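Here is one such tokenized protein:
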Amino acid sequence: MSIPVVLLIVLAAALIVVYAYRRIVAGSTDELVHLSDPSDMAIAKQEATDQKLKQLDRLVITLAVVFVIYGLALGGFQIYTALVSPSPGS
């Protein structure tokens, strides 16, 4: 396996890990909105979880975009080298 393919696999694995972690964090959220006391710890926990989810969303989107662009570039390069190289039958 070549280094660019290994890099693509590493990017895919990182994307899967970050997305799985995001799902775990999102699964532990409290679906109820706590509006009781503004100093309530539940509100602070909800805000902290919201911030963490926003950061993870940005990271997932960034990794997904990098993965797709790199995969398309790698595929395009493979097609280009296949078209440019002399055919083995001639």
